[in-house]
Amino acid sequence: MTTAAPAPSSLAPPGTGAQGLDVAPGSVVRVRDEEWLVTQVVTTTDGMLLTVQGLSELVRDTTAQFSIGLDTITPVDPRSTRVVADTSSRHRLSRLWLEATLRKTPLPASSTDLAVVGDVLADPLPYQLAAARQALDPANLRPRILLADAVGLGKTLEIGMILAELVRRGRGERILIVTPRHVLEQMQHEMWSRFALPFVRLDSLGIQRVRRSVPATRNPFSVYHRAIISIDTLKSDRYLSHLRRQRWDAVVIDESHNITNRGTLNNRLADVLARQTDALILASATPHNGDPRSFAELIRLLEPTAVHPDGTLDEEAVRRLVIRRHRHSPEVRDVVGGRWKERLTPVNRLVEPSPAEDAVAAELSRAWLHRPDGAAAPGLSPGQARGGDALFSWTLAKAFLSSPAALIQTIDERMSRRRSRAASQEALASSEQSRALARLRELAASANTTSSGKYRALLEELARIGVGPRSTERVVVFAERIATLTWLATHLRRDLGLPEEAVRVMHGGLSDVEQQEIVEAFRQSHTPVRILVTGDVASEGVNLHAQCHELIHYDIPWSLIRIEQRNGRIDRYGQETSPQITTLLLSPSDPGFSGDVRVLTRLMEKEDQAHRALGDAASLMGLYSGEKEEKAIREALQAGTDIDDVVPDVDQALDRDPMAALFARLTGTAQADEEKDPHDAQPAADRALVPAPSATSTLYASQVDYLRQALTELYERPEEKADAATGGGGVSWREHGSEQVAELVPPPGLRARLAVLPQSYLQERRVQEHLLLATTPRKGARLLAEALRDDSDSSWPEAHYLGPLHPVLDWAGDRLLARLGRSSVFAVHGSVESPTVLLLGTLTNRAGRTVSMVSVSVAFPYLDVEAARADIAAGHTLTPVSMVTVHDSPSAMLAAAGIEQEQTNTGAVSDVGLLSALIAPAVDAAQDQMSLTMKAAAETARARVATWAERADSWDDDAGRLIQNRHLRSQRRSVDEERELIAKHSPAHTLIRPLLVVVPRDVAGDAEEGGR
Question: Which position has the higher pLDDT, 567 or 963?
């Protein structure tokens, strides 16, 4: 069962909430006559809110929240901890208790050591690890970053790494991910499959489930602690009030270039979320649109004081907040290797039109595009060649270059609008234009057949690739117009003899569920889909490279950015076959129209040049907007301007584009190569071999070793089936060593926790009934890849990798602490010379975050045992002389005491009463010693907070000298809120916990006790 207090609604004023209650994650408290382990501390307007896990018998398997304003909460004094001899084989009990305790202890928020990403299915590369470390940099008051890597570098993996590390630091209980709707399932799949981070997917079906299960008056985000939702859904007024009352540990906004325009609903949503979250991760391959103000808006959301009141940027702050690399950056190029094959030379295929197509092109050129009278359209004089009518001529041309079907649709829509006009002059023009449109439509209808040159060329390309009824080859065909997509799908099915499901059509008019289903089907090898005919809805964020390395542009978007985004669907990290990109370019006989096609051909060539030299095509034109690029190309075509005057070569890009130069300077890329010391730099080949650090287990060689021992302790015979009548038995535990797979039947407590996993995973793999676990990363990665290639209907792996954050390990740890850890610690023999108490100290701030962690051992080398026993018998408090040692980490402290992964138990420790009496003086000695360490940590934390306060004050002084406008007043409110947050990051609580008592090994009793 779960006892839930109201979700935190807003931040408390500085200084409130901590009065009279000194607790932190790891504390044991007594509430309602039961003992609880504190796992999270949050300060609200009503005071402290504790998230706890039940320890005593009646509340085991119970997660609860208690508010200091509603409940009497009594911290259990660590000095009263009793000592229990560990009599288990190989000290199984103490090792399990220590491991569970350390896993439940959040790592310091200031630590940049990566604790879990070395043991997930992310195959992390050095440049991706660098992004995670930068996000966690303690120089930032809060984890905030803009991941601005170019298309294909793995921003989703970087997001997952950052979130996983935040969870390990106790900063990831409540997470919201906001994405475009067509990548909801893909993002959810990546987060769970690779990082064991479950998210409830709130697509249209998910929202329906919420409405059925959550009362209309209830804040849905207080029910689902981790959710993924589309920006189009979330920005509506329906959710805004809920969001303003909800605090988040972390918010991710993917494709964040869509939130930069102030006054829009997207920007309003981003502003609300930025204020309501601790960590903020923005991701975009195009982080600005050429206007410095759009880039500044992203920076303002991350850190309000990083944008000066006059709108200029604090460049030092931006370097902390932004990370930007591309395919050919040295740190990327040297490590991606075979996991990202270089694209083959693109093929720009000039296609001879059919006679009917050529007639359409000639009519467009003569009557619309290149009229000898200079007019923009029939019925207009040269002086009227402007505005919408001028644009419409090129709209017709662009539609035709997509397909005759698209041209027919465009003409029909225009004719329909024309019929509604009433003014006489417009009616005259309309009459002439109507005749011209009717003539053009008649020609287009004649060309709208499968004998068209471009369609025949497409069939030839599909034959080259090998697409057919008995082939597994796949291809993505891009086109802009829905009419083109549907026409292609209909005729490809017929002409290639393919069933309907083999040719799928995807466009923005489909629902989020339909779009996700199509992408998911294309990712899996066993599905019948062979051709994905899609519009540019698939050009942002969608991964299509798992089963495909061929992409055909049936038409060309008149934008370098959109060309690059399309190509990035298959040309990205993880592509193991060199991608081939083919463009079909109609080459009419009319010299005017063929000249226009040559301009578009140069666009394709320049995108490839920029890809290879810069890794980013957006900087060539310096417009950073697909719409602006298309407008510039259209105007160049209309005016007959040389394309090289509009789209410069690579070597001219930075000189002509001040925004690109500014961005390079802000992110440090301009100086990166020249500042690098060749003697200090690690060789690229060596960097590629550096594994991600892993500190996920202290006392066990692997996650499955820990789980196996935990189940052995929790169940007398874990391999037996559960006994429904008595509640006893086991969990049907099985290990298949050679297969690197383990299995169990989840008991009720675990089933309840698994309920938050992705719904499709629960349904397709039935994990609440039978849980399969891959026990090695190699096996987990293989099963994840096979899920996309096997003949099942699921892209979820058959066995989920048992990573460090898997819910089954969290469940086992809670059960162990409830069973073993009620205000007691174990005593064992170890490599010490005198009785020694091992303790862990943590410093937390007012927000409940761990600021610093200290491992301390307190030895009693001069202990007079007989005198101590007499003092205890007389009821006196012991005050023995002690020696205190500070260790680098808990694992280093355990190693120094001789506590190993496979330690022999040489016999039960005696005199536990005496050892219990040493706990209080050990805590006092540790407190005295740790006060120095904690004081230094506190001073460091206060210095960081003071630096932030100075920035806020400086910003406020500058703002006071300027005339206040609406935007500046809004930013000022953000800075004021930042100042309130500063107080919450001040150090507030110190907690010292005994972990273990170690006594010298009895030399006379070294013989192992019968296998124990």
Answer: 567
In order, the DSSP letters of 414-449 are: HHHHHTT---HHHHHHHHHHHHHHHHHHHHHHHH-S
Show the DSSP H helices in 558-590 as ranges.
Answer: 560-567
Tokens standing for 722?
């559960």
The answer to whether residues 115 and 168 touch, using CB atoms and an 8 Å cutoff, is: yes
pLDDT tens, 133-192? 999 988 787 899 999 888 888 899 999 999 999 999 989 989 999 998 888 888 999 999
801 SS3 class = strand
Report the C-alpha gap between 738 and 775 in whole angstroms: 11
Does the structure show a pLDDT above 70 at 390?
Answer: no
H-helix or E-strand spanning residue 207: helix 204-213
Mean model confidence pLDDT for the chain: 83
- Pure H helices in 448-540: 453-465, 482-496, 512-523
Determine contact, residues 337/689, Cβ cutoff 8 Å.
no
Q: How would you classify the pairing of strands 47-54 and 200-202? A: unpaired
* Separation between Cα atoms, residue 690 and residue 370, nearest integer Å: 61
**Of 593, 653, 652, which is closest to residue 624 (Cα–Cα)?**
653
- Can you list the alpha helix ranges (DSSP code H) found in 576-657? 591-613, 618-621, 626-639, 643-646, 650-656
3-state SS, one letter per residue, for 686-748: HHHHCCCCCCCCCCCCCHHHHHHHHHHHHCCCCCCCECCCCCCECCCCEEEHHHCEEEECCCH
What's the distance, CA 575 to chain centroid?
Answer: 20
The arrangement of strands across the sheet holding 82-85 comes to 82-85, 824-830, 987-1000, 836-845, 850-859, 883-887
Tokens of 627: 């719409």
Q: Helix, strand or coil for residue 313?
A: strand
Distance CA 376, CA 393 (A): 7
Contact, 680 vs 693, CB < 8 A? no
Could you tell me the pLDDT band of residue 384, with boundaries at 50, 70 and 90? low
Q: Is the dihedral of CA 883, 886, 890, 893 positive or negative?
A: negative
Contact 44, 10 (CB under 8 A): yes
Angle at 808 between CA 802 and CA 812, to 5 degrees: 120
Token reading at 789: 């290639």
Question: Which pLDDT value is given to residue 348?
Answer: 93
List pLDDT tens digits, range 89-137.
Answer: 888 999 999 999 999 888 887 788 899 998 999 888 899 999 999 999 8
Q: What is the arrangement of strands in the sheet containing 580-586, beginning at the earlier edge strand?
A: 347-351, 580-586, 550-553, 475-478, 531-534, 503-506
Coil vs helix vs strand at 37: strand
| Residue 233: closest CA among 280, 286, 176 | 176
Q: Does the CA dihedral 877-882-886-891 come out positive or negative?
A: negative
Tell me the per-residue pLDDT of 190-232, one tens digit each, with 9 for 90 and over: 999 999 999 998 887 777 777 777 777 777 787 888 999 988 8
Residue 394 has pLDDT above 80, yes or no: yes
Average pLDDT rounded to a whole number, residues 997-1011: 57
**pLDDT in the model for residue 979:** 67
* Cβ atoms of 771 and 812 closer than 8 Å: no
Q: What angle do CA 52, 54, 60 make, to 5 degrees?
A: 150
Tell me how crowded residue 873 is: count the other CB atoms within 10 A of its CB: 9
3-state secondary structure 402-416: HCHHHHHHHHHHHHH
Mean pLDDT of 715-741: 88
Encoded amino acid at 22, one letter: D
Asked whether the predicted pLDDT for residue 684 surpasses 60, the reply is no
Q: Using CA atoms, how far apart are residues 664 and 346, in angstroms rounded to an integer?
A: 28
Distance CA 322, CA 408 (A): 46
Q: How confident is the model at residue 375 (pLDDT cuts 50, 70, 90)?
A: low
Residue type, 605: E
